[in-house]
Amino acid sequence: MRVALLLLVATVATLGAQPPVPRATVTGRVVLPASVPVPEAKSIKTTYDREHCGNAVPDESVVVDAKTRGVRDVVVWLRPDDPDPKSNLGPADLPPADAKRKPADVVIELKGCQFVPHVATARTGDTLVFRFTDPCAHSLIFPADNFGRTQLPIPEKGEWRRPVPADATVFPFKCSIHPWMEGHLRVFDHPYHAVTDAAGRYTIRDAPAGKYRLVYWHPIVGYRDGKDGRSGVPVVVAAGLDGTQALPPVGFDITRRP
To answer: Is Signal one of the keywords (predicted)?
Structure first.
């Protein structure tokens, strides 16, 4: 009788257990459409601290690789397969290890009188770290509502740390001493986001299998396809034999202005 009872309990537990959700590493590229000419690389003349900054710095507002047509600094993220842009991913969409995740440092260097990287992403609760490696002073400005209009003069070789606010979404940051310096941060409450590299490539790891949408956003032009692009492009995430899924390139004209 006791053996039968134990077998019954084990059977019920087995039937009630939920199988793990298959996951995939999603890769892709964002490219300038073939019909759009590749913009020339431009530079911005400096006005202060030229002995450290040089006479000019690269203009990073729009960066396209001339050989691959890859678009840099596009933020790509996964969201529910729902046309309502306000819908969010739920706890079941997150990887099991996410519950034990510790906040990470998101480091942005002030190097060569520019923000490196120019565009970054973070999770809610992460720590934003501005690291000053230039041999000259900088003064940070956060015009976004999430941080309030804050101006922080920091001496050379200094560092500034602050937790990312829970209600943050996207905001720019600048330097009031060097007006050409500008960067952007986008904040998420899930891990499925990435920023394209110099060749337009991105990688989103541990994405759950199923029907979702991918959103493409650039700090200068906003969403791909304008306002309609807020809900994203439908995509079916399915892990291949090696656990990866390579998506076809997506065209995004970042030379247009909203």
So the answer is: yes
